[in-house]
Amino acid sequence: MQHHTESLFLRFWGVRGSIPAPGKDFVRYGGETTCLEVRAGERTLIVDCGSGIRALGNKLEADGVREVDVLLSHTHLDHIYGLPFFRLAYDPNCSVRFFAGHLEDGRGLREVLERIMTPTLYPVALEELLGSAFETFRGGGQLTLAPDLTIDTMRLNHPGGCIGYRITRGGRSVCIITDHEHGNAMIDAELHTFVRGADVMIYDAMFDDSEYARYEGWGHSTWQKGLKLAIEADVRTPILTHHDPSRTDEDLDRLSEEIARQHPGAIVAWEGLEVSI
To answer: What is the Cα–Cα distance from 174 to 165, expressed in whole angstroms?
Structure first.
């Protein structure tokens, strides 16, 4: 098992939005959908279980990890459809806790996830996830998972709801702001405060300003808005992710060059990117 002495260690296992993007034009940045590994000392956190969680689960199993907390931003398919392929969740000797804070209509997380693991959609039922527990919290508060770990949450602007996370340990912090649409003045002001001074901010860069008008109301932001927020809120390292599945390696190379001119510390996320904080 790896032991990380940093306050927080991040590894990206999926950086796409909407649907996986396989093929020769998507090799260097990767085609899996959203999945982020966060190591906080001996504790392992996962943010979202998009298709990237399959490979992550295999790695955690090989590393001998037996306890994992999964923080879901929301339950749209591209953020949960890796769940049936997450090996640790089936192991009764493991403890995998899933958390969601975006549900406002009285439904529990288990009830929502059962929908994708029913016989008409998938041959294995959710009850086969013997190592798993499902917990719903109210977004906007704080989650307590360990004495040395602070997890603040806030509601983002996205159809059906979405949760942003700020994970802090040892005075270092990472904010995960995926599936968020700028434009709601009240939420934008709260988000500015929420991410202020973060070491790392992972931000929804699904669109470009030039194409945004066609997709207004879809629940996603632009890379330009992400960089502007990072600069105004004094974020040291903004990381752009949730790439449109049509963005090729060449497209993302051009984006990397452009953001380097605007914010020297900014990064376009790729599958396998590791960040130590």
So the answer is: 8
Give the whole-angstrom CA distance, residue 97 versus residue 103. 17
Residue 240 in tokens: 């752009």
The single-letter code of the amino acid at 133 is A
145-177 per-position pLDDT tens digit: 999 999 999 999 999 999 999 999 999 999 999
Q: By C-alpha distance, which of 84, 17, 85 is closest to 242?
A: 17
Residue with tokens 């001119």: 261
CA distances from 208 to 133, 166, 196, 204 (A): 38, 25, 23, 11
**Interatomic CA distance for residues 147 and 124, integer angstroms:** 36
Give the separation between CA 213 and CA 119, rounded to whole angstroms.
39
- Determine the 3-state secondary structure of 190 from DSSP: helix
Q: Which of 217, 111, 227 is nearest to 157 (CA)?
A: 217
As given in the structure block, the two tokens for residue 277 are 């904080």
Q: How far is CA 4 from CA 39, 44, 184, in A?
A: 7, 11, 38
CA atoms in the 13 A half-sphere facing the CB of 214: 6
Q: Which two tokens stand for residue 53?
A: 């969680």
3-state secondary structure of 101: coil
Going by pLDDT thresholds of 50, 70 and 90, the confidence category of residue 6 is confident
Distance between CA atoms of residues 244 and 129, nearest Å: 31
Q: Could you give the residue ranges of the DSSP H alpha helices within 10-155? A: 53-63, 77-80, 109-114
